[in-house]
């Protein structure tokens, strides 16, 4: 009787009819509370329903009843990944491997974690170990190809991906991975083809949706340059990202100091300092402006999330404010409207990022809100008293400087697990 309930529940699970599968499994467990297979599948069902807490509860019971079953540890590792407990996931997979060294999927999952943690050589080695046990393992093939690309082994990465597609030409994840590979190597048109294929096989593939949005924006040269920068710095480990950011800032400050201290060098160094400042500013504004333009694309309503659409509205409002300030400045020849234009441009940056998750929560919208209040007070004082050097103007510039470091910290933490 239990076996029949399990088989029906498993079929429903494969059909993604999770509530019905859960109901049958609960029914089976009333007859045999110690059924390892039912407990394991119930954990899988709850994980699929985005309930990692319940999934963890059932998998812990299963592990307690059968502590030598490697599959249970691998499933718990996936639950830990879902709640971003990567250290725990790694330890669980190592335990699974110690229990069953011949299971290729465990090596593939461990390789995927190493890849996410930017340990590219280690990821490639683990993927190769998985493939030595199962040459057709798609996760291992995809991880290996990405790890090879990150190590600048472009030809080998291409061959690995071709092998993955050869194993399953209709695999959405492989097409997605192929798309990101092409995007990183500057082939946005080919990337777009693979993202379209990925979404044809799985319309809910969010990784493919994100890639397609990037590929569509990459038709603009400026955004392609921005993507190259994003990939370049994104491939670095956290400490090297900080080295670059701090080094860029310190280098610019040093050049400015030398230009001020040595008048003979000022005509040569000042343009370089201005150029570096413009490059730094462009890395903040290209993304929001490009997403604003993309929002008019026919695919935007499918690819932009609800919060991204809200961010686009904020971006559009800030851009409109900035352009209005520029227009008023030229029409009325009043420098205070130039302050409005600058404030609008700067405020576009935090408001375009307001939806990014932080710990503690809501730090991004809080930062954007505080900067908006400071800017509003600064402009109010400037327009009512004529004092354009009031303390709130300085406070706004300081808040923008502080926000850049905060946003960099959030971005680096998100990209390094």
From TrEMBL:
PROSITE patterns cross-referenced by the UniProt entry: TPR (PS50005)
Membrane-spanning parts: 240-259, 271-290, 311-331, 337-356, 363-386, 392-412
One Pfam family of this chain: TPR_19
Position of the signal peptide: none
Keywords: Membrane, Repeat, TPR repeat, Transmembrane, Transmembrane helix
InterPro entries named in the record: TPR-like_helical_dom_sf, TPR_2, TPR_rpt, Ycf3/AcsC/BcsC/TPR_MFPF
Residue stretches of each TPR repeat: 2-35, 70-103, 104-137, 172-205
Entry protein name: Tetratricopeptide repeat protein
Native species: Nonlabens xylanidelens
